Amino acid sequence: MMAQQKPLTTAQRQPGGLSLVPIPLQLAALRPPTAPLEPEIDDELRELEAVSQNLEIHTLSANTRRAYVKAWRSFEAFCQVHDLDPLPAHPETVRWYVAWMSVQMDENGLPRFSVATVRQGLAGIADRHLREGLLDPTGHRGVSGLVRGLAKLRATRPVRKRPLLLDDVLRIVRSMDHDVYPAGVSAARDELAIWLGFAGALRRSEAAGLQLNSLELHRLDGVHVHVGASKADQDNTLPDIVVLPFGETPSTCAPCAVHRWVALMNAVDRRQTMTLLFAYQLDEHVCGKAGTGPGLISSADLMSDAPLLRATYRNRKSARIHEQGVTGDALHTMLLTRMAEAGMNPSAYGFHSLRAGHVTQARRNGASTEEIMRAGRWRKAETVNVYDREFNPAARNSVMRLGL
Ligand SMILES: [Zn+2]
Question: Residues of CATH 1.10.150.130 domain(s) within the chain?
Answer without folding.
Answer: 62-155
